[in-house]
Write a structure and sequence with these properties.
- With 144 residues, this protein is an all-alpha fold.
- The chain has one domain.
- 84% of the residues lie in helices and 0% in strands.
- It has six helices and no strands.
- The longest helix is centred in the middle third of the chain and has 35 residues.
- The chain is elongated.
């Protein structure tokens, strides 16, 4: 029964984390187009900060903790199958995207953004591609 509950919490946390990773760059698209110091810009600053601190970062931490626990329950840390190693690399890349976005939140908060909205549209696709790779590895388990 423990395995199932650990998996449930892990999946819920991953879904929450992904929702934030997909939404935050979209907010940044709008923020990059908004005038600095205006009402819209100030509203977006609050939305970005709350999304990052109240949802994304806690969800990322829970995803990691319960993901590590899940891997231990399955014995994956002792076996280290190749698909699992690739998954961990992609999850590390996803965490890197998270921290990069967190840095962008600080840049927007200081009204120092120099990136165009178009760049954030492209960046918005990175978590999606990583997610596709992770799901394919977990479900198909290639290289066994």
């Amino acid at each position: 029964m423990t395995y199932e509950w650990v998996k449930v919490v892990h999946l819920l946390a991953v879904i929450s984390w992904m929702a934030g990773l997909l939404y935050l760059p979209r907010l940044m698209v709008y923020h990059a187009d908004a005038g600095k110091g205006g009402e819209l810009s100030e509203t977006l600053k609050v939305m970005e900060r709350r999304l990052l601190k109240a949802i994304m970062t806690p969800a990322m931490i829970v995803s990691w903790v319960f993901g590590i626990w899940l891997g231990a329950l399955q014995g994956l840390w002792s076996e280290l199958p190749f698909w699992f190693v690739l998954k961990i690399i992609l999850v590390l890349a996803m965490s890197g995207a998270h921290f990069w976005l967190a840095g962008q939140v600080k840049i927007f908060a200081a009204d120092k953004n120099v990136m165009a909205a178009r760049a954030f549209r492209f960046i918005n696709e990175v978590p999606t591609l990583l997610m596709i790779g992770i799901i394919c590895l977990v479900v198909v388990k290639p290289f066994l």
